[in-house]
Amino acid sequence: xxxxxxxxxxxxxxxxxxxxxxxxxxxxKRSGILKLKHLYEYQTTLFMLDFINNRLPLSFNSAFQxxxxxxxxxxxxxxxxxxxxxxxRNFASKLSLYKFPHIWNKWSSMIPNNSSRAxxxxxxxxxxxxxxxSSFKCTYGYCNDxxxx
Length: 149
Known about the structure:
By secondary structure, the protein is mainly alpha-helical. Helices cover 47% and strands 0% of the residues. The chain contains six helices and no strands. Helix 3 crosses helix 5 and helix 3 (36-52) runs antiparallel to helix 6. The longest helix has 17 residues, at 36-52. The two termini are 31 Å apart.
C-alpha cells in the first residue's frame, strides 16, 4: 500500500510541476483529487448507500444486515447501524464483507436519510478536502514550499 501511496504523491507532484519534496496536501486540494485512503472510503460509502437504497444487483441483498435484523431484543442507539460480524482471523477482517460496514457506520451519521447520491458525493468530498491543509509551515530542511534551508 505504501508503494501505491508514494506513486500517487509522485503523480500529483508531476501533474502540478512541483518539486520532489513539495507538500502534497495543498496539491491534492488544489487539483480536486482525493488521496487514496479517502478515495477508498468515498467509493465504499457510495457503494453502501446504493446497498441501503436497494440500487445494487440482487446478489448483494443478503451481504450485509442491520443490527435490528440480527438482534430482536430492544431498540438501542446502534439499531440502525450495519451489523459487524466478528472474524477470527486478521486476514478476514480486511475483506469487504467486514470492512464495508465499518466504513458505512463511520460515515452514516453525516449522511441525512433522504440525501441523494449527488448530495452525498458533495458532502464527502467537502469533508475530505477540508481535512487537507492549504498551506504548510514545516521544519524539514531544504523544503521548496516553505523556503526553509
